[in-house]
Amino acid sequence: MSDLLENVTKENMAKHEPPEIQYLKLKDRTLAYRHLQGASPTIVYVGGFLSSMNIHKAVIVEQFAKKRGLASVRYDQSSVGLSTGVKAEDATMETWTGDLVAILDNVAEGQPVLIVASSMGCIVSSYVAAVLRPEQVLGMILIGTMISVNVIKMFTCDCHQGPARHLYENVEIGRQRATPEQRKQHDATLKSGGTITFQTPYGKGCYSQQHITHSKQYSVTPDQVSNPKFDH
Description:
By secondary structure, the chain is α/β, with parallel strands linked by helices. It has nine helices and eight strands. The longest helix is centred in the middle third of the chain and has 15 residues, at 93-107. The chain is globular. The two termini are 32 Å apart.
């Protein structure tokens, strides 16, 4: 009989029996997650921008781990899904990086992990692997990676190619296609502390000067996350 790993259909998704939802309470927010018990290393799925832990890729990774007797974790990042305590306009790369560190420390309990990340989750995961938890992260699979796209360009819609484009092509005031007057209004909104909102396939997103400022330190290059251990 065909299963989820062979054929992603609504029927096979419905057959998958996930672990129960649990909640990790942090100082200022609560993260919802599903933790499949199993052998080490734990496979951790890190979603993209506005992507919840119910997305197909996250469920498929969990099914993969289940069939091989491995532990896995998938979670809703702050401001997404069932996680609470942080509003969308207040969630930054710093917040999401903190989410992953909290999951690694408290759910994976500091034990070795393999990370599977998608889109913006690749930035989060790469920074954590290269800077914050290099000894814990044994390896990564990055899907639709954005680590080669400058984070500042990502948040100002100034990237002309690559996987970041589809998330931001519907920005209300896209700098690349904007008129001089629209650019002026866009910059004035950010300067005054306002928020730019836009529509993505996963819902309404937003960014502000705070997002841009907090994101500068999280822009890593492929060289920073290259490591001989990832090749094994």
